[in-house]
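Support reply, case 0932

Customer input (verbatim):
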Amino acid sequence: MKTIEVVAAIIVNDGKILCTQRSENKHSYLSKKFEFPGGKVENGESLAQALIREIKEELNMTIGVEQLFLTVEHSYPDFAIIMNSFICHTQNRDLTLYEHLDALWLDVAELDSLDWAAADIPIVEQLKVSLS
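Our regenerated output:
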């Protein structure tokens, strides 16, 4: 099974966390699920560089990467991922959805209300412990 290294941004602004909804996907277990935005790490990139690039490409948003939050290893039916999530900040909530269906800014207590991609659930659970 192929393993992909990815990065995910836990973007915080004024106490709210950005949650993005995936578009339709060939894998039904990912289609329309919520996730922390991010993507694949390209050759020669640091994790922070990959995260800044991915957020700019997907959301036209500028972020600052603060610190590694949690690394999740998860096996989906067709592939496995190693997802490095980082606490990030942004100066404003302006964004453009290039790849996602929706974007919501939620309090930590509201995160459970969303249908998350399986690999993102451990991050949600850790955020509830760390930030509540």
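We compared this against your earlier run and they match. Two observations from our side: The longest strand covers residues 64-75. The chain has a mean pLDDT of 96. Please reopen the case if you see a mismatch on your end.
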